[in-house]
Amino acid sequence: MSANDSPASPTPTTLPIAGEIHVKSILVPTDFSPSSLKAVLYAERLAKDFNSTIVLLHVFLLSEYAGNLPDPTFGLSPTEVQAAYNASRQRDTDQLTNLRDELRARGRQVDIQLVNGTAYEQIVCVARNMEVDLIVLSTHGRSGWQRLVMGSTAERVVRLAPCPVLTVRDKERDFVEPAPGA
Questions:
Q1: Helix/strand/coil (H, E, C) string of the chain?
Q2: pLDDT digits (tens, 9 = 90+) for 125-177
Q3: pTM above 0.70, yes or no
């Protein structure tokens, strides 16, 4: 029995030959924070390399909207509550539209989605319904009790997404940098 026939020898692993990578669409959730805009930068570069469409997604969180309202004891009328909701939603729509227009001006194909709900659930739902090929998602770097209480949107998306997810941390060694003069 030769050394190669020994039962103690590990069996070699063979990988299938990798084919082409086709990324037709990239979903990029954004809350317009600097870290989520960094994820947009990564997606923009990947979209250029793969000739992909970017789908910008903003999840309108009703809990954030409620935090922007005055104390309920101020006795807001239903009309005032609706006006505050509409103004907040319009602000988010305008930001999403401006971001889309900026990327289109730089030659990217971009669609936008604005949905209500819980961030991770809506990100996964939109990714599934639109059959996107990749999600590029920022992490906000919460730790300790904040992460315990609030959970990690990125972690949940990674676990539940129907496609690969690239997470972009706020502080990391970047492999995509802004173009000189940008």
A1: CCHHHCCCCCCCCCCCCCCCCCCCEEEEECCCCHHHHHHHHHHHHHHHHHCCEEEEEEEECHHHHHHCCCCHHHCCCHHHHHHHHHHHHHHHHHHHHHHHHHHHHCCCEEEEEEEECCHHHHHHHHHHHHCCCEEEEECCCCCHHHHHHHCCHHHHHHHHCCCCEEEECCCCCCCCCCCCCC
A2: 999 999 999 999 998 755 444 444 445 889 999 999 999 999 998 776 666 66
A3: yes
